[in-house]
Amino acid sequence: MFGIFDIYLMEAVVNGVLLGGLFALLALGLNLVFGVIDVVWICYAELIMLGMYGMYFLYTGYDVPFLLAALISIGGVAVLGVVLHLAVIQPLLGTPPINQLLATGGVLFFLQSAATVMFGIDFRNLGIRLPVLEVSDMFISYARLLAFGAALAGMVASTCFSRAATPARRSVRSRRTGRSCR
């Protein structure tokens, strides 16, 4: 009885840690937006949603190969992010952060409502079945392993980049705010 409980507990812990990697990947993006570029941007998840819908429709509806659909979706979300930054955030950079919060909140509600009207509320997936790794009677999802690996690689890359870019970032912030940052 206790041997079976132990393996289920261990499987839940491993899968929980791997799922935490997915959340860490999303938090990494939020950290870059809030902490590094100093912008209050709360419609981040909605841009990810649009990228996911783009990927879904390119792959399932237009039979675009998986990796090409992913690259197109990432590029589309990047372009949309730049357009939203130029149209919504840049005019508000000199104002109090509450203005950025309200503006991106409006974009958030608009994108959520538009997606609900255009795509409905039905669950969709790409239909890709990744294998499941079996280790000592534990089943571990390859999708979670990939997400955990991407989160780990993203964190290492952003840490290395931020350490290398810190002097340049201080210079940019001091010119923008008129004071030096330590």
Q: Please count the helical segments.
A: 5
Fraction in helix: over 70%
- How many domains, in number, for the residues? 1
Write down the overall geometry.
globular
Q: In this structure, how is the largest beta sheet organized?
A: 2 strands, antiparallel
Write out the strand line-up for the largest beta sheet, numbering strands in chain order: 1-2
What percent of residues are in strands? Answer: under 5%
Question: SS-based structural class?
Answer: mainly alpha
| Mean of residue pLDDT values | 85
N- and C-termini, Cα separation: 58 Å
Number of strands: 2
Secondary-structure element order, N to C: HHHHEEH
Unreliable spans are none
Radius of gyration: 20 Å
State the gist of this model.
With 182 residues, this protein is mainly alpha-helical.
Topology:
Layout (H helix, E strand, L loop, with lengths): L1 H35 L7 H18 L4 H24 L7 H23 L12 E4 L2 E4 H36 L5
Antiparallel strand pairs: 1-2
Structure description:
Strands 1-2 form a two-stranded antiparallel ribbon. It is mostly helical and 182 residues long. The termini are far apart. 9% of the residues are buried. The longest helix has 36 residues, at 142-177. The mean pLDDT is 85. It has one domain (2-177). The chain contains five helices and two strands. It is globular. Helix 1 packs parallel to helix 5 (142-177), helix 2 packs antiparallel against helix 3 and helix 2 (44-61) packs parallel to helix 4. A hairpin with a 2-residue loop joins strand 1 (132-135) and strand 2.
